[in-house]
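Quick start: read one record
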Amino acid sequence: MKIYLASPFFNDNEIANIRQAVEILNAKGHEVFVPMEHDVENRESLTNAEWAEEIFKIDKSGIDSCDVVVLLYGGMYSDSGTAWECGYAYATGKKVVVCCCNAEQPNLMIVNGSHAFLNSINALKDYDFSKMPIIRTAGEQK
């Protein structure tokens, strides 16, 4: 399965979360698109606006070509780019599996826009991507 991994990657903790999720998803045999691993060729020859437009196209194409989006969610703080990825995926009919990375009360738009809301990144180990069960509460998780 092709998975787009939506997550901010602006600090060491966020990058560690991404690496943990990628390790789990790869171990389950999934192909994972990680935006922070994709940059624009000849970046130094582009203006900031040109670079931003190219990154937007790369990431949008990654979502368009995936089977499902996995969102690493940091609670009420959310990176605006990651929130856009989640909303775009939902609007285009992609299923979004959200992994909560902290114990904060989740945003209702994220929960209700998700196909599954998992209580941790480790919960990806038990999630069956072949069946894609709908999960919205902690009581529905192992």
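The CA atoms of residues 64 and 89 lie 8 Å apart.
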